[in-house]
């Protein structure tokens, strides 16, 4: 069974919430049904002011 994620907050609200810059190639698009194996944008402790893409799964 696979898990699904969603990320549908407005980009400006997301950046304000985490005091971070969305680093999405091609821009940020809200998504309501993110499947495993699709790139997700995460904030890590190593780069706490920047979101980076990673593959979910």
Automatic annotation (TrEMBL):
<dbReference type="InterPro" id="IPR036590">
    <property type="entry name" value="SRAP-like"/>
</dbReference>
<dbReference type="GO" id="GO:0106300">
    <property type="term" value="P:protein-DNA covalent cross-linking repair"/>
</dbReference>
<dbReference type="InterPro" id="IPR003738">
    <property type="entry name" value="SRAP"/>
</dbReference>
<dbReference type="GO" id="GO:0003697">
    <property type="term" value="F:single-stranded DNA binding"/>
</dbReference>
<dbReference type="Pfam" id="PF02586">
    <property type="entry name" value="SRAP"/>
</dbReference>
<protein>
    <submittedName>
        <fullName>SOS response associated peptidase (SRAP)</fullName>
    </submittedName>
</protein>
